Amino acid sequence: MEPLTTLSVEALETRVTGILQTHGFSAPNAQAVAHVIVAGERDGCKSHGLYRLEGVLKVLKAGKASGVSIPVVHDTSGAILEVDAGGGYAPASFVAGKEALVQRTRELGLAALVIRDCLHFSALWHDVEALAEEGLASLSMCPSYAFVAPSGGTKPLFGTNPFAFGWPRRGPHPYVVDFATSVAARGEIELHRRAGKPLPEGWAIDAQGNPTTDPQAALEGAMLPFGGHKGSAIATMIELMAGAMLGEFMSREALDFMGGGDLLPRHGALVLAFDPARFAARSGRDPLAEGETLLTAIEDQGARLPSQRRFATRAGALARGITLSEAEWAMLGRLGQGPSAL
């Protein structure tokens, strides 16, 4: 059995922050990126944890992203706020725009945060959880790379196009949904390839449009949307709302701009926030109490709410630390040597 190393969440975040700075990130950008990478590891989401670190560094070394850009917030005093990432990483832009988004949502009842020209690599639950902690409901979405074929199609056109929804609760955790509109995240296919494991049926097609369980053939072909035509329609909505509507890249354009899918994608992102209290003000009803009625009814049937497993894993990591494999520990040591290690 390979030896394991356990670090506290704080210690691992400090380690990852230091590695990013060694590669040329400014402190604010390094902290924002490290936080979401370690959050993925903390919550047991390996496809968005330390696995993402090398990809984040490679796109910086290739000159396709900036680790020092300062996000610029543009406020028109209306419902739409914009953050120009300047080719920087999305987490720092969300941090830069969050306070203004919360304030504007409370003023108007709803507001939107548009993030322009960002390098995206992370899950979206960070956005909606942060807003739920402020008592707001929210949606977060972005395109990706054209790796997914439309339902009934044979060639990549959509991104994995993640979509997240958060709803505030009075307990310790909000209701959070975060999923790719493909059957699985592309990172999951890569992890299957590295482990030499076949894919479940229905995840992908090969370059000729035939169903495949071979991870390498899937990476060379196309992934499939979840739920057939329904997932395909949601993926289309995200391309339109977080790409075309913002005047930012859609997934096909992002792939062409970056010269292929070997590096992480650069595009825009959209976060929509809602104040439940403002929406329900004239009803005389408490929207959070009404929400609890529904969520409790789901649990009373023995069903598990989305993210419950992730929250349980988080509690364990906060109490006992994050255990890294020998390979993960070695990767941190290698990447800590600087750009020459890539």
UniProtKB/TrEMBL annotation:
It comes from Thioclava kandeliae. This is Ldh family oxidoreductase. Pfam families: Ldh_2 (PF02615). Keywords: Oxidoreductase. Belongs to the LDH2/MDH2 oxidoreductase family.
